[in-house]
Specification:
By secondary structure, the protein is α/β, with parallel strands linked by helices. It has a domain at 347-443: ANL, C-terminal domain (GMP Synthetase, Chain A, domain 3, 2-Layer Sandwich). Helix content is 37%, strand content 25%. The chain is built from 13 helices and 20 strands. The strands form 4 sheets. It has an 11-stranded mixed sheet with strand order 4-3-5-6-7-8-9-13-12-11-10.
Amino acid sequence: MRKLITLIVRKLYKKFTIIDNLTNEYKKIQFLSENELINFQSKRFEKLLIHCKKNVSYYREFLDKYDEKSFRNFDIKSLPILTKDILRKKFNELKSDDLQTRDWMVNSSGGSTGEPVKIIQDTYYSYHSEARKNICFQWAGLETGDKLIKLWGSERDILGTSRLLDKIKYFLKNEIILNAFILSRPIMKKFINIINSSKPSTILAYANAIYELSNFAKNENIKISHQNSVISTSGVLYPFLRKKIEMAFGCKVYDQYGSREVSCIASECEYSNGLHISEETILLEIVDENGNECPVGVEGDVLVTSLVNYAMPIVRYKIGDRAIMESGSCKCGRFHKRLKNVVGRSMDNFKLRDGTIIPSEYFIHFIGVVLNRGILKKIQIIQRSYDVVDLYVVYSDEKILSEDVQNITQAVKKVMGKNCNVNIHEKKDIAVNSSGKFRYTICEL
């Protein structure tokens, strides 16, 4: 056992050292001039295009007609928009031919836009994404090694499969994980006690989960010790959410927007004047229904290009969100483009009779990620009553097994109760609402 722990610690230490060195590099890069930042991003995009032409059959079809020298000033609109449906159908063609030389893993999107997908990512992507995310954390006052509490979903807590590796990793990173998948009154009271006693530098949390915790503290008249900062992610931070959280935790709340496909997309700095786009690691566009760039201040579909994932490059990926670009410059002195806000998705928490809150992220994670082996194209979950949940599903071309249906049903019953009636309905499509938002989870109580 001691030998195993030593090997794990050494491996993690090597990883943390690489990320720490990259973080220091990005710390300098964040203050590049506007032209320097554009040049930095252009060089990374050029390098990615060269790789795609040589190693990715899907993009080779579009890039073969171009000389590599033309990639220096390449118009990204010359490439097609990558939809989630194309990503599923062309999964093998999107893999890099040199995948066997890379240390890689398969990741899955959470499906909060209703359309979960799988994607391959390598360690180069992982290291650079983590380092860039660290910069966003620093904007909220969190330095490497500072105590961080995550009000986050933990599938292993639910399944009872916690690993030694995770415990060592959290210990070395000085992190405490509070499982946000079930928020009963006793659990929320316990979480507040942990927060008050451990005195973290920052709390990173699902927007809906920390809002529910704030509501609970107010309703129960329980004081939460003032924090240095709270970072809200995995959900839209509406103004009323921000106000409630800031009142409960006595600190500034920083909004962060990201996804499993490309990691940290944009974050607020200390001035909260829009979300700075992580332009060192991604290229972001906002386009209309015809694929044309939207003017600043006009809402459109978000397209993202990861500049650091070579295992499975995704270019002009339609992530499923809608956003608005911010105008002007920020007082912080950084020249990154900024998002005014992110819109286009709507999620409700579910409720049990005893007042327990089941955050929407539970269903996103277990149904969209853990249990999804590529069979689900689109999903929507509606709580009709305390004992009735309807699940609307658009299946992919994969063969549906009775085991799939059973696993999904059990995942819902695990948190909603064994007497909950789970009805699964197959659909050809699930529409957005009249405002253009897709409602992933809907609670009718």
